[in-house]
Amino acid sequence: MNRCPNISSLLRKARHFIGLATTATATATAAATLSTSTPSKSAASAMDDLKTLKTRLCIIGSGPAAHTAAIYAARAELKPILFEGWMANDIAPGGQLTTTSDVENFPGFPEGILGMELTDRFRAQSARFGTEIFTETVTKVDFSSSPFQVFTDAKTVLADAVIVSTGAVAKRLNFPGSGEGPNGFWNRGISACAVCDGAAPIFRNRPLVVIGGGDSAMEEANFLTKYGSRVYIIHRRDSFRASKIMQSRALSNPKIEVVWNSVVMEAYGDGERGVLGGLKVKNVVSGEVSDLKVSGLFFAIGHEPATKFLDGQLELDSDGYVVTKPGTTQTSVRGVFAAGDVQDKKYRQAVTAAGTGCMAALDAEHYLQEIGSQQGKSD
């Protein structure tokens, strides 16, 4: 892990701001031209038309699922429109990969690749095949009738089919040292994905911590024993909520030690490498604060799928994930599909998200053929 993604993130954000400013300038120029050549009422009407777009397929999202769907759809000449969002869920366009430093488990990059660079490549490949990408956040949708309507603050899109691939955000705790920036150790020893980051050299043969008490925490702790010298599970209660079998696997592992009734108060550096060096841990029963020397901390307290903007128009499960028909990406609304972490709460990997993005594009293409949507009908 290193600070390169932070620099890349700033450059990426600057690029999007420039793009937005350019779009705003072009719109203002168009408005000025209309106002000098036609009556004001006609000019207003024309500007309204500029804000309404029509497409055969609209994709909502910016991660591997969204861009894989866009690549397949664009190559199938569906001319997709993709909304990548602007700091949607407080994450830059590109999704959770933009918060990751070295990605070493995505096929095709034997030396690894920075998360931000990988998402930039996704985007470039989508654009190469003709995907129209807007750096705008979808605020609401209307799936009650066809064509479906997708809304941002600046546009309305009428689409014959929609792919929802807005992902899920890993929940993180907030305490001194847990965030980004010079005083935080996010991506410098703190992560929210053991499977993604656990094998990194920074964690090899060093003591590690997992925070959580569910099945994910047990699974991640067991996974990390392959790399860490010792793995501590810090849990704020005196019992886990994980299933009995997952608890048994963790508690019987000789490399795992549970720190019960405890919470992390602070993360601090090692003073030399500029990475995580340890934690201040408080026992919530006795009030005692102890020092725990570790080189890695992994949040395993769940994820929150980005589905609020759907406003209940698609069937969701009890955790808020979009429900899809087994073996497909079809949602409860015919013609609306879901791909990636927004519908996958088990695997949550970039490569599995890309796979479901492919599935969604093929499902959407077959659906459009089925309803007789012809080339140019909704363009």
Automatic annotation (TrEMBL):
Where does the record place the FAD/NAD(P)-binding domain?
56-357
Record-linked Gene3D superfamilies = FAD/NAD(P)-binding domain (3.50.50.60)
Q: Which reaction does it catalyse?
A: [thioredoxin]-dithiol + NADP(+) = [thioredoxin]-disulfide + NADPH + H(+)
Q: Name one GO cellular component term.
A: cytoplasm
Specify the domain of life of the species encoding this protein: Eukaryota
Q: What is its EC number?
A: 1.8.1.9
Q: Give the residue spans that cross the bilayer.
A: none
Q: List cofactor names only.
A: FAD
Q: How is the cofactor bound?
A: Binds 1 FAD per subunit.
Q: Which UniProt keywords apply?
A: Disulfide bond, FAD, Flavoprotein, NADP, Oxidoreductase, Redox-active center
Give an example GO biological process.
removal of superoxide radicals
What is an example of a Pfam family matching this protein? Pyr_redox_2
User: Which GO MF terms does the UniProt record name?
Assistant: thioredoxin-disulfide reductase (NADPH) activity
**Subunit structure of this chain's protein:** Homodimer.
Annotated family: Belongs to the class-II pyridine nucleotide-disulfide oxidoreductase family.
What's the protein called, per UniProt? Thioredoxin reductase
Which classification does the entry list for the species?
A: Eukaryota, Viridiplantae, Streptophyta, Embryophyta, Tracheophyta
